[in-house]
Design brief:
The protein is α/β, with parallel strands linked by helices. It contains eleven helices and 16 strands. This is LysR substrate-binding domain-containing protein.
């Protein structure tokens, strides 16, 4: 029995839900796939699949074995890719998962030069706010914000992601500069909505974080929309430097210093942008040149 082939057949069945569809996916006869799974179950002494006339489903132990099989097959693919591309020019599909807003403001402007420099690399860019498990989700590089991730992944800090209070210069001229939380009650907020919740503003008071009572002018999951609201004098916002660097430099927007400490996430008042990748993957040319390029430019 070819155990790796049997693992692959199991993955195909889990993905398609039937032996016939799995056989098409694996480009093999149905009888071959069936015998492969039977031999695997016989060797393991465990039932991996529950079969009926209409449906095939994984057993509990089958789900466990499937996850382990995926990891093994992925590791083999990485090893073969590493060997095959070690001495070649950087090439192949480079999968990058990045925060949508950060990608728009920071990453996308760099990609044209990157692709000109490495024309044999095909970029597969996914914009997502969801947490990424590199080995599970198939991403070569992930760019995320927050605290430094734990685990075996390499986390290269790119820049600060702490959100600070800001407003347009014309807004300040019209409505004045608040200096205390009490004075903020006379202003309006432009709030960011994450995939999980609206990020309300908080203030640290007597060692604890409390939500700030301020009227809301706008809620959006787009930093570009919030930035436009700022420039239209619709209110004030909490944003990271990288999202409004140009407007701060030319004077259209300005930081608003407060006596108290403000944060959009009470449990994590300071955060950074990190580039995540797996150390063993760094030996693959396409990943090495991308990591080095982004470290240099970001």
């Amino acid at each position: 029995m070819n155990k790796l082939k049997a693992m692959y057949h199991l993955c195909c069945i889990a993905e398609t839900g039937s032996f016939s569809a799995a056989a098409k996916l694996a480009n093999a006869p149905v009888s071959t796939v069936s015998r492969s799974i039977q031999a695997l179950e016989s060797e393991l002494g465990a039932e991996l699949l529950k079969r009926s006339t209409r449906h095939v489903a994984l057993t509990e132990i089958g789900k466990i074995y499937l996850n382990e099989s995926k990891d093994i097959l992925a590791a083999i693919d990485r090893a073969e890719g590493r060997v095959g591309s070690y001495q070649n020019a950087p090439s192949g599909v480079l999968r990058i998962s990045a925060l949508p807003s950060y990608a728009e403001f920071r990453l996308l402007p760099l990609l044209e030069e990157f692709q000109s420099r490495y024309p044999k690399i095909v970029l597969d860019l996914e914009l997502s706010n969801q947490a990424t498990e590199l080995h599970r989700d198939g991403a070569d590089i992930a760019i995320r914000g927050g605290s430094k991730p734990k685990g075996r992944v390499i986390a290269q800090r790119l820049e600060d992601n702490t959100h600070r209070l800001c407003a347009s210069t014309s807004y300040i001229n019209k409505f004045g500069t608040p200096q205390t939380i009490a004075e903020l009650s006379h202003h309006r907020a432009l709030l960011y909505r994450s995939p999980v919740q609206v990020l309300h503003w908080h203030v640290k008071s007597h060692g604890t974080w409390e939500r700030i009572n301020i009227n809301t002018a706008q809620i959006s999951n787009s930093l570009r929309v919030i930035r436009q609201g700022l420039l239209a004098d619709q209110g004030m916002a909490m944003l990271p430097t990288w999202s409004i660097e140009e407007e701060i430099a030319d004077g259209r927007l300005r930081w608003v210093p407060m006596q108290e400490t403000l944060s959009i996430i009470a449990s994590n008042p300071t955060s950074s942008i990190y580039m995540l990748y797996q150390q063993p993957q760094y030996t693959i040319p396409k990943i090495k040149v991308a990591v080095d390029y982004f470290k240099q430019h970001l």
